[in-house]
Structures are given as structure tokens and as C-alpha cells.
Amino acid sequence: xxxxxxxxxxxxxxxxxxxxxxxxxxxxxxxxxxxxxxxxxxxxxxxxxxxxxxxxxxxxxxxxxxxxxxxxxxxxxxxxxxxxxxxxxxxxxxxxxxxxxxxxxxxxxxxxxxxxxxxxxxxxxxxxxxxxxxxxxxxxxxxxxxxxxxxxxxxxxxxxxxxxxxxxxxxxxxxxxxxxxxxxxxxxxxxxxxxxxxxxxxxxxxxxxxxxxxxxxxxxxxxxxxxxxxxxxxxxxxxxxxxxxxxxxxxxxxxxxxxxxxxxxxxxxxxxxxxxxxxxxxxxxxxxxxxxxxxxxxxxxxxxxxxxxxxxxxxxxxxxxxxx
Length: 324
What we know:
alpha/beta, Rossmann fold, eight-stranded mixed beta sheet, four-stranded antiparallel beta sheet, 11 helices, 31% helix, ATP-binding, Oligopep_ABC_C, P-loop_NTPase, transport, ABC transporter ATP-binding protein
């Protein structure tokens, strides 16, 4: 069996406040194979985005990676000098952020921004760089790409700006792309187009993709495997179809029950009671216990990960998931 493209082991990223330590990522482990699409889901504040930033070494003070390992094809990334990490970003590891207006420079043309992304890793002529830029914009579905290179970000719609951001991430054919909720602000039709294009591009280029989202419907249409996060930890993992069809963790079940599609017409939407815990004061044992309908005294102790075949969960009282 070949080694995974990306191997994350016991990753911990903490933020140090004056009177507390916030464990935003607390012992996260997973692997990613070449060409695989992995979904990372959970409520806001569950640690999804911080996990993505940690993989790229984009954690600013007062946060820092305090433990764990991130290996890309066997090369340890945690602790690499800043210059070496910068050389990897965009070339081996790339990220697509949620809001392209905060990542695209409003005073530079699209051509200029793509040229800078190319120049960060290799030397090419202006003509070759422009041709490459037009090619990658065409690949992500931007019509008349050669002419649109001279436009500015504000001259594109939200969906087209996000396509540009995806094009920049694809520019150097990275091994791994981390997409941090890139379709959240887009309408459903544009979202569906981008999901279809991303799936096709991953298949064509062999790039691995980590898709971070709170939207289980989006992840179910895209990812082959899913990780569910809560309070900085992975509480359930497995093949997407298996996890969504028969969740084992009550939190995963609660997320699914909250989907509007599961509500009867005219009925109130269901929701998980309560709020996610503050990271400065996590409850003892299972962090989900204050909101869990199955919690009892045993949940005051931290549950260990249970692995059964390709499924895994962290719960003292898992649901009966049936066949995997």
C-alpha cells in the first residue's frame, strides 16, 4: 500500500490569551491520498479553518502549532523555516479562501496578480506568463479569458472572482489544495457550477483537495471521505455516503437533522440545542455532552476514538449506524 500524499498526526494549534489557552485544534489526525477529495465539516468555531491554516503554516501570534506532525510526501512541514514554507505555498500546497475580494488585490489587474503568483516560483517571459494565465482562467470556466486578463477584480461577479481565486491556486499544479468555504457567499446555481468544475479539475490534474465547509449538502456532492469536527477535535470520520447515511456520533446526526431538506413542509426546522462551547472553558470529558441527548455520567470522561473498518468516531454512546 503506497504512503499517503499528506499525513497529519496529533496536530495541535493553540491560541494563548492573557488568562487562557484556546485549543482551536486539539490532536487532529488524518491522511490524504493523491487525487482524493476530503470534506472537513462542522459548525463555526469547530476548528476547521484553523486546521487548514495550520497545514500551510499560516498561524499568526498569539496562535502557534504546539504539537503534532504534518508530512507532505514524507517531508515534515511543522517547524520548517519560513522561507522554505513560503517556497512550498502555491507550488506544492495552495489555498482558496472564502472571500476572493480579500485575497485578490483590488488595484492590480488579474494578469498582474497571476504573473506575481508565477514569478514567486519560477522565471517565465511576460508572453509565456500571459498565455499560461489565459489557459488557467479558461480551465475554470471564465469566457474570453485572454481579454479578461486586463480587468480588475471589481469588474467580475462574485462567482467569477471565486473562479479567478481557484485559477490562482491551480496555477502551479499543486499537490494539495485547501478550499476554505469558497462557495458560501455564492448563489446555489453558481455554487453548483463551481463544485462541478472543481471535481473535474481534481480528476484531470490529480490534485488532492480538502474542502472545508459547514454545508453537508455541498460536501456530500463533492467529497469521497468526510471528517466531522467539534471543539477542535475530529469526532467522526469515514466515507461520505456511509457517514451521512448512518452517522455514529450524535453531533453528526444533529447536523444532518438540521438540514432544511429533512423538515416536513410547514414544520419548524430542527436544530442542535445550545451553543458550541467556548474554547476557553471546555466542559470536562466530551465537549459535546452539554448539548447531547445521549449524555450521562460516563461522558465526563474523554472518549477515545473507536475504529471499525473505514469508519471512526469519538463517543461513549454511539448511534446504531447499521452496516458501514
